[in-house]
Write a sequence for this structure.
């Protein structure tokens, strides 16, 4: 999945007024979190440059983690506490599903606790 595809999909399921630059920043932050916490590629202190890559790293069918994260963040900024809590719960399930997939493959997550 590409960043453009994620942005278009999110706009279709959760119309919003936020600028694409905000959404891209959130996607970049999520990519770093995935690289650090799931794959163990970077420490949080290392510089990470990801905005140039259009293609995102999480494969189908686990790429749901991207759009659920953006919807969650939109709810955080524009929604109610209840709508954010629900959206964030959906994101967290997508996150856990991908982390378990990486663990099953014997990836970095094997040594980490997945909540």
């Amino acid at each position: 999945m590409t960043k453009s595809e994620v942005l278009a999909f999110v706009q279709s399921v959760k119309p919003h007024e936020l600028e694409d630059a905000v959404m891209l920043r959130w996607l970049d932050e999520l990519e770093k979190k995935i690289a650090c916490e799931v794959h163990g590629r970077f420490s949080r202190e290392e510089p990470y440059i990801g905005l140039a890559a259009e293609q995102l790293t999480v494969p189908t069918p686990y790429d749901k983690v991207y759009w659920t994260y953006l919807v969650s963040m939109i709810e955080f900024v524009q929604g109610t506490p209840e709508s954010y809590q629900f959206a964030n719960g959906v994101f967290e399930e997508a996150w856990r599903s991908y982390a378990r997939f990486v663990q099953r493959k014997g990836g970095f997550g094997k040594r980490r606790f997945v909540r």
About this structure: The radius of gyration is 14 Å.
